[in-house]
Amino acid sequence: MILKVDDVIYYGSDAINKLAKMSSRQGIVDRLAYWLFKSPTMARLIYPLLAACRNLLLKILGKSRINNLDLPDNKKF
Protein backbone atom coordinates (compact mmCIF):
# COMPACT_ATOMS: atom_id res chain seq x y z
CA MET A 1 0.00 0.00 0.00
CA ILE A 2 1.23 3.45 -0.89
CA LEU A 3 -0.23 6.79 0.17
CA LYS A 4 0.92 10.22 -0.97
CA VAL A 5 -0.11 13.24 1.10
CA ASP A 6 1.35 16.68 0.41
CA ASP A 7 4.40 15.30 -1.43
CA VAL A 8 5.14 12.83 1.40
CA ILE A 9 4.95 9.15 0.46
CA TYR A 10 3.90 6.56 3.05
CA TYR A 11 4.35 2.80 2.53
CA GLY A 12 2.71 -0.27 4.08
CA SER A 13 1.94 0.06 7.77
CA ASP A 14 2.80 3.77 7.77
CA ALA A 15 0.21 4.32 5.02
CA ILE A 16 -2.53 2.42 6.87
CA ASN A 17 -1.70 4.30 10.08
CA LYS A 18 -1.96 7.65 8.29
CA LEU A 19 -5.25 6.63 6.62
CA ALA A 20 -6.69 5.57 9.97
CA LYS A 21 -5.85 8.95 11.47
CA MET A 22 -7.43 10.72 8.47
CA SER A 23 -10.67 8.67 8.58
CA SER A 24 -14.05 10.09 9.53
CA ARG A 25 -14.66 7.46 12.27
CA GLN A 26 -18.40 7.73 11.66
CA GLY A 27 -19.15 4.18 10.54
CA ILE A 28 -18.41 0.95 12.34
CA VAL A 29 -15.75 -0.07 9.81
CA ASP A 30 -14.04 3.33 10.07
CA ARG A 31 -14.04 3.16 13.86
CA LEU A 32 -12.67 -0.38 13.82
CA ALA A 33 -9.92 0.57 11.36
CA TYR A 34 -9.04 3.63 13.45
CA TRP A 35 -8.90 1.56 16.63
CA LEU A 36 -6.72 -1.13 15.00
CA PHE A 37 -4.33 1.14 13.12
CA LYS A 38 -4.15 4.38 15.14
CA SER A 39 -0.97 3.20 16.85
CA PRO A 40 2.11 2.87 14.60
CA THR A 41 3.17 -0.19 16.61
CA MET A 42 -0.18 -1.93 16.13
CA ALA A 43 -0.16 -1.04 12.42
CA ARG A 44 3.33 -2.59 12.06
CA LEU A 45 2.12 -5.76 13.79
CA ILE A 46 -1.23 -6.19 12.02
CA TYR A 47 -0.51 -4.90 8.49
CA PRO A 48 1.81 -7.76 7.40
CA LEU A 49 -0.78 -10.34 8.44
CA LEU A 50 -3.55 -8.59 6.51
CA ALA A 51 -1.29 -8.13 3.47
CA ALA A 52 -0.42 -11.85 3.55
CA CYS A 53 -4.14 -12.74 3.69
CA ARG A 54 -4.82 -10.41 0.75
CA ASN A 55 -1.99 -11.95 -1.28
CA LEU A 56 -3.19 -15.47 -0.51
CA LEU A 57 -6.74 -14.60 -1.60
CA LEU A 58 -5.46 -13.05 -4.84
CA LYS A 59 -3.39 -16.17 -5.52
CA ILE A 60 -6.39 -18.43 -4.88
CA LEU A 61 -8.50 -16.31 -7.23
CA GLY A 62 -5.76 -16.43 -9.89
CA LYS A 63 -5.30 -12.68 -10.01
CA SER A 64 -2.00 -11.18 -11.10
CA ARG A 65 -0.03 -8.37 -9.54
CA ILE A 66 -0.65 -4.80 -10.64
CA ASN A 67 2.07 -4.12 -13.16
CA ASN A 68 1.71 -0.40 -13.72
CA LEU A 69 5.48 -0.02 -14.14
CA ASP A 70 5.55 -2.64 -16.95
CA LEU A 71 8.20 -4.73 -15.21
CA PRO A 72 9.05 -7.82 -17.31
CA ASP A 73 9.37 -10.28 -14.39
CA ASN A 74 6.14 -9.35 -12.61
CA LYS A 75 4.54 -12.80 -12.40
CA LYS A 76 1.39 -14.04 -10.72
CA PHE A 77 1.41 -14.35 -6.95
Enumerate the spans where pLDDT stays under 50 for 5 or more consecutive residues.
Answer: none
Number of extended strands:
2
Instruction: Supply the number of helical segments.
Output: 3
The gross shape turns out to be globular
Q: What integer is the average pLDDT?
A: 86
Strand content: 5-15%
Order of helices and strands: EEHHH
The biggest sheet amounts to: 2 strands, antiparallel
* Count of separate structural domains: 1
Sheet with most strands: strand arrangement:
1-2
| Share of helix, binned | 40-55%
Q: What structural category do the secondary elements indicate?
A: mainly alpha
Query: What is the first-to-last residue Cα distance?
Result: 16 Å
- Radius of gyration using CA atoms only: 15 Å
Short description:
This protein is mostly helical. The chain is built from three helices and two strands; from the N terminus they run ββααα.
